[in-house]
Amino acid sequence: MHGRYSYLCLYPFLPVASEYVKESGLTLDHLISSVPARIRARERVIEAIRTGCVERSVITDELQAQMELLSYPFARILVSCIRDPYLVRRYALAEAKGAYRRIMEDLHHGIDILYKLAVDLDIHAEISSGYVLLPFTDYLRLTLNLRDKRWKLVNRSLVQGKVKLNVSEFVRLLQEAIYERVMKGLPLDVPEEICNSLRAHIEQIKQELVLRRTKTDEFRAPSGGEPDSFPPCIKTILRNLEEGMNIPHSARFAVTAFLLNAGLSVEEVIELYRNSPDFNESMTRYQVEHIAGVRGGTRYTAPSCATMRTYGNCVGKDELCEKVSHPLSYYRLKLKNKKP
Ligand code: SF4
Q1: Is residue 207 in a domain?
Q2: pLDDT tens-place string over residues 172-206
Q3: Ligand 1 center from residue 233 Cα (angstroms)
Q4: Domains of the chain: total
Q5: 224-228 contacts: CB < 8 A, separation 24 or more?
Q6: What is the distance in A from the centroid of ligand 1 to the CA of 230?
Q7: Whose CA is nearest to atom 6 of ligand 1?
Q8: Residue 212 is assigned to a structural domain of this protein
Q9: CATH classification at residue 31
Q10: Do 266 and 179 belong together in one domain?
Q11: Cα(254) to centroid(ligand 1), Å
């Protein structure tokens, strides 16, 4: 299948796709009574929970394309009925990551896809086959959540007052724009009777969520660490990582050094970063091994409470915090107090 329709069903979060749905006269009732769209919508959400990425589905005819297109607003309804902030973020990120992969695949057929998406996402890019120029305002908005130093303005070249990017960097920023777009309005205000009529799908999704959380918790309780006894600052960073939030470099360093010193292995720490929007296994491995002293020979200790405060990472202080000056001391004290 080719043409406008296949484009819309692969990128259903675009404003042009919702306009198409409206113009075609499809109402909420149509949507809710379409069994294939409901099933595909549930799959979208479950895939987001399980793998963190909504993959391209095989589209062979118009009917299937329509169902694929409708499954997106339906998936938003399902996510909204559950109203779990973790699910909302994970779902939006999974749609954005899936779109990133589809764009990279579509680039094999030329750069037209970049023009179309830039226009449809209201990004004022100048695109040529080798590079893309982006106005400051767009660049700053789209890099707001990206922590890697390569995105800092001082590390970018400017051409005619615009920020120069290579094509894959631009696609990465499109992913950010898509994430923003999917998040917009979520969770929707869905009438209770509609949520009730979708109970069976919602229950399945909730079960997947429980399963996912259980797996994460199992993982978070490896031989060397007792997460219940971690200090509030470390628990907060871990929760943010689990929810796929981008966290600052200082917090990444703090949590990595803390966990390694609490007895987690390099592999276990790497796993914790898998949900990060920018996860890159070899880069993460390099950084974790560096902090663990596998590379360079120096094993780093976690930052003290004073340093955590300086970088804004001392969050959720409790009574025990008053007695310690280091997150690792908090952990040891809590473990000691727990012993019978
Ligand atoms: S006082 Fe120390 S241990 Fe407690 S939350 Fe702040 S940084 Fe963490």
Answers
A1: no
A2: 999 999 999 999 999 999 999 999 999 999 999 99
A3: 6
A4: 2
A5: 224/262, 224/263, 224/264, 224/265, 225/259, 225/262, 225/263, 225/264, 226/335
A6: 10
A7: 314
A8: no
A9: 1.20.930
A10: no
A11: 11
Q: Place 216 in a pLDDT band, splitting at 50, 70 and 90.
A: low
Whether 150 and 192 share a structural domain: yes
Distance, CA of 259 to CA of 107 (rounded, Å): 40
Give backbone dihedrals phi and psi of 280, rounded to 5 degrees, phi first: -135, 110
Of ligand 1's listed atoms, the one at least distance from the Cα of 320 is: 4
Which residue range forms the structural domain that includes residue 89? 4-200
Please report whether residue 216 resides in a domain: no
Instruction: Note whether 22 and 141 are same-domain residues.
Output: yes
* Together in a domain, 229 and 184: no
Task: Give 260-317 pLDDT, tens digit per residue.
Answer: 988 888 888 888 887 777 788 888 999 999 998 887 777 888 999 999 999 999 999 9
Query: Residue 77 domain-assigned?
Result: yes
Q: Whose CA is nearest to atom 2 of ligand 1?
A: 305
Quick one: 81 and 185 in the same domain? yes
For residue 318, which atom of ligand 1 is closest to its CA? Answer: 4
Smallest Cα–Cα separation from 55: which of 15, 101, 87, 89? 101
226 C-alpha to ligand 1 centroid (Å): 17
Examine the domain organization and report whether 233 and 299 are in the same domain: yes
Letter string b/e over residues 116-145, b meaning 16 or more CB atoms within 10 A of that residue's CB: bbbebbebebebeeeebbbeeebbeebbee
Question: How far is the centre of ligand 1, averaged over its atoms, from the C-alpha of 336 (Å)?
Answer: 17
Boundary-marking domain end, from 200, 235, 267? 200
More confident residue, 47 or 33: 47
Q: How far apart are CA 12 and CA 69, in angstroms?
A: 6
Residue 147 CA to ligand 1 center (angstroms) comes to 23
Do residues 21 and 165 both lie within one domain?
A: yes
**What single letter denotes the amino acid at residue 322?**
E
Verify that 124 and 252 share a domain, yes or no.
Answer: no
CA-nearest residue, atom 3 of ligand 1: 327
* Percent of the chain with pLDDT strictly greater than 70: 94
pLDDT tens digit sequence for 225-270: 677 889 999 999 988 887 777 788 999 999 999 999 888 888 888 8
Residue nearest to atom 4 of ligand 1 (CA): 321
The answer to whether 259 and 268 are in contact (CB under 8 A) is yes
Q: Measuring from each residue's beta carbon to the nearest atom of ligand 1, which residues come in under 6 Å?
A: 231-233, 305, 308, 314, 316-317, 321, 324, 327, 330
